[in-house]
TrEMBL record:
PANTHER family: PROTEIN PSIB-RELATED-RELATED, PROTEIN PSID. InterPro entries: Prespore-cell_inducing_factor, S_mold_repeat. This is PA14 domain-containing protein. Keywords: Membrane, Transmembrane, Transmembrane helix. It holds the Pfam family Dicty_CTDC. The chain crosses the membrane at residues 397-422. Coiled coil: none annotated. Signal peptide: none annotated. One of its GO terms (cellular component) is extracellular region.
Length: 463
């Protein structure tokens, strides 16, 4: 066998042999089994292509395959210049929108992103809105001023909107007074002596600092809570020691920056709801975490990971898509599977037992399970039975004499028998026989062979 590698169009090789030297495929460059590239002169003078010749063309046919300039960066536009090669133009400025209430940027993995600016968040006392034109905040007092029969005192972040009842008491004898919730004005008057029933500021007084007392139109002493909530979304309370009223939100939040809550009135009840996480990037592929830093929201958006080694999480259009992991396997004698929460586990494949003594079954890491016929010799009188193995017919007297001659020329007989084994069983049969089952060169493979009692000396030979 000869092997020649041509390095230049002018190189050559000469060999003289009696063996027939043929080539059943010559390329257009006159190279045996060549790919047509050794004499290729294609060149488009561009670094943006890979130049080659079509190996199937008789005349030179050029192929100019474009190279990839993809830098895997969503913030660049990728092009190729014939002289300078790949160009990556920054496109992150296109992420800046007109709404000044948001911060904008570009991520090389996901492209443009936006995040609402902090510092313009509402609280229990003030409603703030952001102006998209200049990013400035507009503030409006959150506490209603026209609460029936209540006088607005002020607001604090700890206590909320503060009110005190309008004093409509009438200290005169037989006087009465109350607040009209429709007109928000005090109504006062006096009873006639016969109708007075003795209800006045002396006999009708509050039971504690958090109650008010008044005489109704019928002269009866009435008591009511001093601190009344103006809205179901506000909870009023009273300090028994000082009589001071305070209000707080009916939908309190432990964190007004990262976990704000809103309240709406439904009938006479307060309905609380959580507002959108200020750090929500709108991407289901990330875990969004909000932390309060110096009174503002600090955001962290981290990609989700799979806890199962057999599941690979991929992000498609901002949505998590789980994909089953395929274990690599280069050994056809092993079955490799991915076990949930464990990983790749390899097991040996089962080599089948056909119960046929004429077939050798084994497994090779490259080709897998294979079968090889078991040889029986001599082949002219021996056959293999699937159940009992090799079965040979008795030799005739002449055949036995031939075997004796074979003993003398044992090397020749053994060599021929070994060649027959190799020819029938193939590569895998050879490996099997070479391992020790049948020696390819021994005359003892003859089923009728016996050791020579003359220590292998020819009894008919003269000294």
């Amino acid at each position: 066998m000869f092997y020649c590698e041509r390095h230049t169009p002018g190189s050559g090789f000469y060999a003289s042999t009696s063996v027939g030297f043929t080539c059943d495929q010559i390329d257009r460059c006159s190279i045996c089994w060549g790919n047509g590239q050794s004499c290729c002169t294609c060149n488009d003078n561009s670094v943006c292509t890979v130049d080659s010749c079509d190996p199937n063309s008789i005349d030179q046919k050029c192929n100019f395959a474009p190279i990839s300039c993809d830098d895997k960066n969503q913030c660049t536009a990728d092009t190729c210049d014939a002289v300078d090669g790949c160009q990556h133009r920054d496109t992150s400025t296109q992420c800046n929108l007109a709404d000044q209430c948001y911060n904008y940027g570009c991520s090389k993995d996901s492209g443009c992103w936006s995040q609402k600016k902090g510092g313009c968040d509402s609280d229990i006392c003030t409603k703030r809105t952001c102006n998209p034109t200049n990013g400035g905040c507009t503030e409006v007092d959150a506490c209603p001023k026209n609460v029936a029969c209540q006088e607005y005192v002020g607001c604090s972040l700890s206590g909320g909107c503060q009110y005190k009842p309008i004093d409509c008491s009438n200290p005169v004898d037989c006087g009465w007074g109350y607040c009209n919730k429709t007109s928000n004005n005090c109504a006062k008057g006096t009873y006639t002596p016969q109708d007075c029933k003795g209800c006045n500021s002396t006999t009708c007084f509050p039971q504690d600092n958090c109650k008010i007392a008044f005489c109704d139109a019928n002269g009866n002493c009435q008591h009511a809570d001093k601190c009344v909530s103006p809205s179901p979304c506000l909870v009023s309370s009273c300090n028994l020691t000082t009589g001071q009223c305070s209000t707080e939100s009916a939908c309190p939040s432990a964190d007004d920056i990262c976990q704000p809550r809103t309240c709406r009135v439904s009938g006479s009840a307060a309905v609380c709801s959580d507002t959108i996480n200020p750090c929500d990037d709108g991407n289901d592929c990330t875990i969004d975490t909000c932390t309060v830093v110096n009174g503002t929201a600090s955001c962290e958006n981290v990609l989700r990971n799979s806890l199962d080694p057999c599941i690979v999480l991929t992000c498609v259009n901002k949505t998590i898509v789980p994909v089953n992991f395929t274990c690599p396997n280069d050994d056809k004698c092993q079955d490799v599977q991915c076990v949930a929460n464990v990983g790749c586990v390899a097991k040996n494949v089962t080599v089948p037992d056909y119960g046929n003594k004429c077939i050798i079954t084994d497994c090779d890491s490259q080709i897998g399970i294979f079968n090889t016929s078991y040889p029986c010799y001599p082949s002219d009188r021996c056959r293999c039975d699937p159940k009992d193995g090799c079965q040979c017919q008795p030799l005739s007297i002449g055949a036995i004499a031939g075997i004796s001659a074979g003993v003398v020329a044992g090397a020749v007989v053994g060599g021929v028998a070994g060649a027959a084994v190799l020819g029938m069983a193939g590569k895998k049969g050879f490996d099997y026989l070479q391992a020790g089952s049948i020696s390819s060169g021994g005359i003892q493979n003859n089923p009728l062979y016996e050791d020579n009692i003359n220590a292998h000396a020819n009894p008919l030979a003269d000294d």
